[in-house]
Design brief:
Layout lengths: L10 E5 L3 H12 L3 E5 L11
Parallel strand pairs: 1-2
Length: 49
Amino acid sequence: MAPLPVLPPCTLGVLGGGQLGRFFVIAAREMGYRVHVLDPDRGSPAGAL
């Protein structure tokens, strides 16, 4: 069985909201994905978006 593709507007989750997560969120949103960031600090770079 072949894996199913994950295409926009699917929702992606990011564990950790550091600078790399921020870049990921920006790129994913530009491609049409919804993104949820899981980080205990709301002020983290990715969590602030």
